[in-house]
Amino acid sequence: MKKPIIIANWKMNPETQKEVKKIISFSDKENVIVCPPFVFLKEVKEKLKKAKIGAQNCFYEKKGAFTGEVSSSMLKTVGCKYVILGHSERRSFFNEDNKTIKRKIEEVLLLGLVPVVCIGEKKQEKNDKIAEKYIKKQIEESLSGISLKNVFIAYEPIFAIGTGNSCSPSVAEKRRLFIKNEVVEKYQDGEKTKIFYGGSVNSKNASSYIKEAFFDGLLVGGASLKKDEFKGILESF
Ligand code: PGA
Question: How far apart are CA 76 and CA 116, in angstroms?
């Protein structure tokens, strides 16, 4: 079996360069995409031999008077190949909506980078239809008219992010199938998109999302910063 792609989302961590070095030392595998904060991108890129790097966000303009923002052309310059977009923390803390996310996706694709588009329902829903309606709207508003050939979609149910309350592989599998059907039926090159699971992935549950729920890869937050956990995840395939 080909090893699944593991995206390490460091979020706003770590605090020091010393810690950056430590995390790099156990992250450098061929199937890993490391997504550190912007300020560490160059250093991480220089130190990694096998893993690739990605960013956690970007702006949709190329340059100009946008204080505090980073463009996808800048990310490309430092060797980024991937950009996480529409993460639920960006949506909730920085009010990013599907329309804004779509503009970012378009710009990232224009530059030849791969957007990792995060979607997922807020609450644990007993009724599948409610979750599906929520996800469908996110897909429609952020991806309509876009070829999905070079787009990754990350299914990250919000209740599972950073909570330790991971989504069961059986529910995750239902959502994966729903997303897959939607994109294959309605979107250009939808059959080519890779679908990831994210939300409280750890060394114990990682393999179930690949072997039982058939995701193409994982988006790992907290556990990507912990040596034993991350090694455990990588060794489970
Ligand atoms: P978590 O985060 O693994 O800490 O739940 C995942 C994510 O937010 O991408």
Answer: 15
Q: 166 C-alpha vs ligand 1 centroid, how far in Å?
A: 10
Helices (H), 6-97: 17-25, 41-47, 72-77, 88-93
Q: Answer yes or no: pTM beyond 0.90.
A: yes
Residue minimizing CA distance to atom 6 of ligand 1: 221
The verdict on whether 61 is a catalytic residue reads no
Angle, helix 169-186 to helix 128-143, in steps of 10 degrees: 40
Nearest 10 degrees: CA dihedral of 37, 39, 42, 45? -20
Residue 232 C-alpha to ligand 1 middle, in angstroms? Answer: 16
Burial of 55 (C-beta count, 10 Å sphere; 0-12/13-18/19+): buried
pLDDT in tens, 174-204: 999 999 999 999 999 999 999 999 999 999 9
**Which residue, by CA, sits nearest to atom 2 of ligand 1?**
221
235, β-bridge pairs: none
Give Cα separations from 136 to 41, 46, 84, 155 (angstroms): 33, 39, 19, 12
Q: Answer yes or no: 156 catalytic.
A: yes
Query: What is the 65 CA–ligand 1 centroid distance (Å)?
Result: 32
